[in-house]
Amino acid sequence: MNSDSVTKMVVPQAMLDMNSFVCKHDPDKRSCFSIAMLAAFLQLLRGKARAASQGPAGALLLAAVLIFTIVADVLGNVLVILAVLRNKKLRNAGNIFVVSLSVADLVVAVYPYPLILSAIFHNGWTMGNIHCQISGFLMGLSVIGSIFNITAIAINRYCYICHSLRYDRLFNLKNTCCYLCLTWMLTVVAIVPNFFVGSLRYDPRIYSCTFAQTVSTSYTISVVVVHFIVPLSVVTFCYLRIWILVIQVKQRVRPDCKQKLRAGDMRNFLTMFVVFVLFAVCWGPLNFIGLAVSINPSKVAPQIPEWLFVLSYFMAYFNSCLNAMIYGLLNQNFRKEYKRILLTLWTPRLFFVDLSKVGTEGMKSKPSPAATNNNRAEMHL
Question: In the UniProt record, does the keyword Transmembrane helix occur (predicted)?
């Protein structure tokens, strides 16, 4: 089986299989549509990555993809942050991590991605080693921050649905802020060793200053395990436990349990589940390529087609603009707030008046997470 057929199986088919699974639990099929559209886009991006290894025209195609990613990243994640700030229903403990995830996605759009565009147009890195190191550091900060925030969101959802009686105590404002600080502290600690190992280097194949997978076998394996496999294992455990509870509630497996899940609970869970799956799909190929290369660099590296290597990176880059789209497609409160923000932008005075109310409303009332968009499971035992 050649690498072309492997890519077809790994990316689109996996997403389509997940699509059919999610559709069964999604009444209005919004998540089905979003996943199918992304699978089609990844097929298109695969063709662009193949072309990128064949000349300047391909590089321009990658530049077009990156420009779209930057614009969608900035606009989408700014909308997410403003939506949470403006909408009282969205200001809760769970969405603190959603805002944090948006900040992590914004980091790459405002500095590393523009430098990659510059390298594409100049056919090489012209910004000097300092900018290269800063760009690589921020790229790592963004991706590790994203996966750690996705892990925090999964733990939050797990506690919210599976341990709802203790949720208010576990995720009060003080504790949530501590968890958030811990998330970013771990992110910084995880990325700092790159400077000592010397693994941040410019790669002309992807026009990026990024983590060099061939620097150290043991270090690369550690990075993939600690930064990708372990967090995804934690997230998988949390979501599996939630799925098991959902199935038990629907089928009434436990006759002594009268637990009910509101439609909003399932909607919010599906939204974050799709965010997690898309992150795994977009970043999985790059991590598995890195793992394979690090185990046997001299044998494996030459066998990986350049277009596949380029595709894995630009799939990962593209992920930074997806989350805001998913919230808008699958979450009614986010979708309504997006519309309000876009409409009020046409009348700036109204926009700033609405924004000024955020502080006063927050001081008047501090809504419990149980009364917000993250609709809580009702427990009747």
Answer: yes
